[in-house]
Amino acid sequence: MQTKTHYKGRYLSLVERDDWEYATRTNPVVAVLVAWLTDRRLLLVEQYRKPVERMTIELPAGLVGDQHGQADESVFAAAHRELVEETGYTAGKITEIMRCPTSAGMTDETAVFLAASELEKTGRGGGDASEDIIVHAIAHDRIDAWLREQYRQGKAVDPKIYTALYWGVTALESAG
What we know:
This protein is an alpha+beta fold. The protein has one domain: Nucleoside Triphosphate Pyrophosphohydrolase (Alpha-Beta Complex). The chain is about 20% helix and about 45% strand. The protein has 3 helices and 11 strands; from the N terminus they run βββββββαβββαβα. A 4-stranded mixed β-sheet has the order 7-4-9-8, with helices on both faces.
């Protein structure tokens, strides 16, 4: 079961194992935040994504250990960092919901879904110097219609949002 590398970039590599080609990341773990405010609004972010060449509506997320000098960063530290950086909210508590592959046939990347609670607005959000993020806080009872409208406007809607909706506000409140 030897892995052959066909291409190695700064962040991604194309590898082959047992006649199966797939992408692998330098930092293969991503923290995905399910952040419900106490008034039942879900925090979402909007940003331009070059691979799909359009604006994308997503859950706040980021790679674990992608900061210089932080290769051993924990998923919880990355989650706290990304939440503040992208949304401007600080979580009093972050708990793990589930770890799962993002696209098991194409990459070894693993998403760690985390519930962020006890949220407090402490910054402006919007991302780091390489990002231009718009923060949305969408009411639970409006989110389906809002997401449909974003899609109609030509934006890509990340399906991980629907995973967050499946877990829902009450399930996350009772898990905390």
